[in-house]
Design goal:
- This protein is mainly beta.
- The chain contains 1 helix and 6 strands.
- The chain is globular and about 40 Å long.
C-alpha cells in the first residue's frame, strides 16, 4: 500500500472558488513543480520534502484566471 495524491494521479478533480472574486480556480499543479526548471524531473521522495505539507499531504497551487489570485491548498493523500 502506498500514499498518493488523488489530484496528481488523476483520481479526482477538486473545485475551489476564489476568495477574492468568487470565480472558479484552476489547479496549476503541485507546488514542487514551481521550485525550479528541474524539480518536475526529480523523484517525489525528494520534492515533497517541503515545509508546507505533512507526509500525508500534497500542496497544490490553485490560480484564479479572473483576478490572478493564487492559493496553496493541502490535499490529503489516499491509500492505494
Amino acid at each position: 500500500m502506498e500514499l498518493v495524491c488523488p489530484i496528481c494521479n488523476a483520481m479526482v478533480a477538486y473545485l475551489f472558488k476564489c476568495s477574492t472574486c468568487g470565480k472558479q480556480m484552476e489547479n496549476a499543479g503541485a507546488i514542487q513543480d514551481f521550485f525550479d526548471d528541474y524539480s518536475t524531473y526529480l523523484p517525489m521522495s525528494i520534492t515533497q520534502r517541503i515545509d508546507d505539507a505533512a507526509y500525508d499531504q500534497c500542496v497544490h497551487v490553485f490560480h484564479c484566471n479572473q483576478c490572478n489570485h493564487d492559493k496553496r491548498i493541502s490535499i490529503d493523500k489516499v491509500i492505494v
